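Researcher: Checking consistency across runs. Here is 50S ribosomal protein L12, chloroplastic again:
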Amino acid sequence: MSDKINNIIDDLKSLTLLEAAELVKQIEEVFDVDASSVANSGMVMIPPDNNTITNEQVEEQTEFDVILEEVSSSQKIAILKVVRSLTSLGLKEAKELVESAPKVIKESTSKEEAEQMKEKLEEVGAKVSIK
């Protein structure tokens, strides 16, 4: 090995555990790598180029979550009725859901059903998002 590498190794041996942890964080930030995946796999992981298209990006999302973002206090009762009709929840459960917004109303639903739910809730004054 060269003297330069030997000096670096000697310097690394003298680091405390906290200094070594800080060094790892700095290396991850500067070189945009993840040390945890490198330690287990035995090979360096290079982040994908932004122009590279993965299979996940090509596939269209088929399941959506409907999220109740905001409820105006003046429209709470109307929104509560719509939530009950869309979810088949009891009065108490629907009330808790509406009062704890932002909250997921329905998970893993089709795009069409999610759009219909959003439209019905927005008609009565709720702010809804689909993810």
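Researcher: Does this match what you'd expect to see?
Model: One thing to look at in this run: The chain is about 55% helix and 15% strand.
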